[in-house]
Design a protein that fits this description.
113 residues, alpha+beta, five-stranded antiparallel sheet, elongated
Length: 113
Amino acid sequence: MTPEQAAALTEYPELQRLIDLRGAGWMFLPTVVDGELVEVHGVRTWPEGWADALRVRYTTDAAGLRNDHTGGVTWQREGTLTEVIDGLIALPAPSDRLAPRLVIARRPLPWTA
């Protein structure tokens, strides 16, 4: 771990949750505007076209969702980084009989404000 990463984790311990997701196969893409990181998007894909997604603007402003193979949203949560990641981690794999399957929206709520 670099000194910069250690300093970031000291200041924002919630970032460890993103590191844990990366270790579980998530991919992350930063959004940088005028040289400043403004948000991070993450995605984990599942067999048969399912995907989980995460948007983080700050430790208190995050959103997550799961889409089925048709793009229908079957689970969605907004809240703190910890709340959203806890929700994503608690989601059963899409193939699990207890996984959410009911489409609650045809596309996610806008993630822009």
